[in-house]
Amino acid sequence: MTIAILSALPEEQAGWVEGLHGLRATRHAGRQFWQGRWQGQGVEHELVCALSGIGKVAAATTAAALIERFGATRIVFTGVAGGVGPGVRVGDVVVASEYLQHDFDASPLFPRWELPGYGRARLACDPGMSAALHAASRDCVGSPLRAHHGLVASGDQFVGTAQASQALRHRLEAAGHAVLAVEMEGAAVAQTCHDYGVPFAAMRTISDGADDSAAVDFTEFVRDVASRYAQQILTGFLQRLLHT
After folding, report:
1. How far apart are CA 42 and CA 36, in angstroms?
2. Is the peptide bond before 111 cis (omega within 30 degrees of 0)?
3. How many Cβ atoms from other residues are within 10 Å of residue 231's Cβ?
4. Active-site entry in 12, 46, 126, 183
5. Burial of residue 206, with CB atoms counted within 10 A of its CB: 0-12 exposed, 13-18 middle, 19 or more buried
6. Calculated CA dihedral for residues 212, 214, 216, 217, nearest 10 degrees
7. 23-26: which pairs have CB atoms within 8 A and are 24 or more residues apart?
8. How far apart are CA 2 and CA 46, in angstroms?
9. Catalytic pick from 46, 98, 114, 208?
10. Helix ranges, 34-159 (H)
């Protein structure tokens, strides 16, 4: 079993590559991949880390390469997102239970958001991996912040105004999709992993409210907060996953 850790930006994965033993770097499909052994509390395991870049196509390409070229049998995505659900605040963590592409629309041939050939709009994350990720998130996130578990939406759009955020949330809720957070990669990775039969889970640290302040201090937040969360949560996640 080879576990892959995937992120869009270097800051979202800071520290993982440096902590691997027997590090090997490979350039493939325009991406950099790092392979090595991770050690923690008596557990040692082969990991591969990769940066997808931003957007759904880039994320799907990288996920496919992880599976085809590097033999990844499980993929976990770590990064940041905008919070749109009730009670989801900056600094909270959202672990995805399902993913939806909020910008996908093949109507009137298919219902809005439904993926042709799949018969549904949502794709589920792996329950066991997600449970371990959520438990690790709860251990890491201290009060008054929270670790949430629910639907996350992806799209090739940076949702950066309150008007756009509210409109997106209301459209989805009216169709029965109560979304907690919005980002730009996860749903594409979920679809790729679904196609290959590879278990997938994802966590997102909430960097903003997907509103008019979304671009303020984004880089600083990712570097100082999200990267620290990612290291702590993924360490706890791997320990849980590999001890079961």
Report:
1. 16
2. no
3. 17
4. 12
5. buried
6. 170
7. 26/70
8. 6
9. 208
10. 56-68, 127-140
Active-site residue, 12 included:
yes
What would the two tokens of residue 178 be?
């109560």
Q: Which residue has the tokens 């912040």?
A: 145
Q: Give the whole-angstrom CA distance, residue 229 versus residue 48.
A: 19
pLDDT at 215 (0 to 100): 54
Contacting residues for 241 by C-beta, under 8 A, at least 6 apart? 3, 74, 128, 129, 132
Give the distance from CA 107 to its chain's centroid.
Answer: 27
The Cβ of residue 131 has, within 10 Å, a number of other Cβ atoms equal to 18
* E strands, the chain, in order: 3-7, 21-28, 31-40, 43-51, 74-83, 93-101, 123-124, 147-154, 179-183, 200-208
Average pLDDT over residues 177-206: 97
State pLDDT tens for residues 212-229. Answer: 665 556 667 766 777 778
Whether the model clears a pTM of 0.90, i.e. scores above it, the answer is yes
d(CA 105, CA 91): 31
d(CA 235, CA 162): 34
Q: Which residue has the tokens 């991406």?
A: 31
What are the tokens at 182?
Answer: 């919005």
**Cα–Cα distances in angstroms (integers) from residue 229 to residues 5, 93, 101, 110, 204, in the given order:** 14, 9, 25, 39, 10
Rounded to 10 degrees, the C-alpha dihedral 150/161/81/145 comes to -70
